[in-house]
Design brief:
The chain is mainly alpha-helical. It has 13 helices and five strands. The structure holds tryptophanyl-5'AMP (TYM).
Length: 324
């Protein structure tokens, strides 16, 4: 039997090259070796206010992006989180074994709640429990995510282990899959900050649906560090970040990149990076346009049905072992 992977992304904001390089690219690479479930986590999206019409649209748009990135519905199951009610049912059970203290330590809550716990939504606080539920329902072995989700993954593992200790072996304890290169792509405007969907400064992110002119302008405006050489250097986060993007988009090794840019300066480098990005995005964007709503429904409905068969099995064992 193949081992199983589960991952997801929120249908909020616009997906950027960080989401692709940190997560989606690996989803595609892993789908042969693993039985894969890729979810559009719309219930996570409502932890912050969303316009209903926009959310519905973005949910379908995100399915298009999964498909255009190369997630193959013949091999992987793609579905919408709210189509599988077991996610919220298991989340309730897990919230009864999770501890306030461990949720209070989640850095993403502190960031997104802007440090104001009094005003922050309860859903934003309990969000990592819903995420654990997503993962544990599918008896997931591996979860491909970017670095920013590592802490949530650790909580998922802790909850699985605690449940197994208390009620008998029920859940597979998932391992994170965090790529060596690309796990935390940084903002083009501030290499100390991760590239983020919710960044107010759109110049910091290359969005997957940006047109060639916009991409080229953003790359030309990207901040650089002191120093003129184009090479990987831990002490120069800006060039490190830009070179990582180049490396992952072109498939070259780190050494090949360094060799390629030896003796060249920022002008040449930025032109080549812009070209590589545009060349990657062009066919990707063509594929995004290929899927109409009807085609998507034809993928998402059977996806949810397949997901439910597994999710309801797991939930059934959970209820049984708890005496529910
Ligand atoms: P989300 O929607 O914020 O991001 C989707 C994926 O993109 C990764 N990512 C990045 N990778 C590299 N560099 C960046 N700058 C960058 N920004 C984002 C994220 O790590 C993620 O893998 N909570 C999750 C969604 C979720 C989930 C799950 C994931 C809900 N349930 C279960 C895995 C398993 C989130 O908000 O991702």
């Amino acid at each position: 039997m193949k081992k199983r992977i589960f991952s997801g992304a929120q249908p909020t904001g616009q997906l950027h090259i960080g989401n692709y390089l940190g997560a989606l690219k690996n989803w595609v690479a892993l789908q042969d070796e693993y039985e894969a479930f890729y979810c559009i986590v719309n219930l996570h999206a409502i932890t912050l206010p969303q316009d209903p019409k926009t959310l519905r649209q973005k949910t379908l748009d995100l399915a298009r992006i999964y498909l255009a990135a190369g997630v193959d519905p013949q091999r992987s199951t793609i579905f919408i989180q709210s189509d599988v009610p077991e996610h919220t049912e298991l989340a309730w059970v897990l919230s009864c074994i999770a501890r306030m203290g461990e949720l209070e330590r989640m850095t993403q809550f502190k960031d997104k709640g802007k440090g104001n716990a009094e005003r922050a939504g309860v859903g934003l606080f309990t969000y990592p429990i819903l995420m654990a539920s997503d993962i544990l329902l599918y008896q997931t072995d591996l979860v491909p995510v970017g670095q920013d989700q590592k802490q949530h993954l650790e909580l998922s593992r802790d909850l699985a282990e605690r449940f197994n200790r208390g009620y008998g072996d029920t859940f597979t304890v998932p391992e994170p899959y965090i790529p060596k290169a690309g796990a935390s792509i940084k903002s083009l405007q501030d290499p100390e900050k991760k590239m983020s969907k919710s960044d107010d400064n759109a110049n910091g992110s290359i969005f997957l649906l940006d047109d060639p002119d916009t991409v080229t302008k953003k790359i030309k405006r990207a901040v650089t560090d002191s120093g003129t050489t184009i090479e990987f250097d831990e002490s120069r986060p800006a060039i490190n970040n830009l070179l990582t993007i180049f490396q992952l988009l072109t498939g070259k090794s780190a050494d090949e990149c360094t060799e390629h840019f030896r003796g060249k300066g920022y002008g040449d480098f930025k032109s080549e990076l812009a070209e590589a990005t545009v060349e990657f995005l062009r066919p990707f964007q063509d594929r995004v346009r290929e899927f109409d709503d009807e085609a998507l429904i034809g993928i998402l409905h059977p996806g949810a049905e397949k997901a439910r068969t597994i999710a309801s099995d797991t939930l059934g064992s959970v209820y049984k072992s708890m005496g529910l």
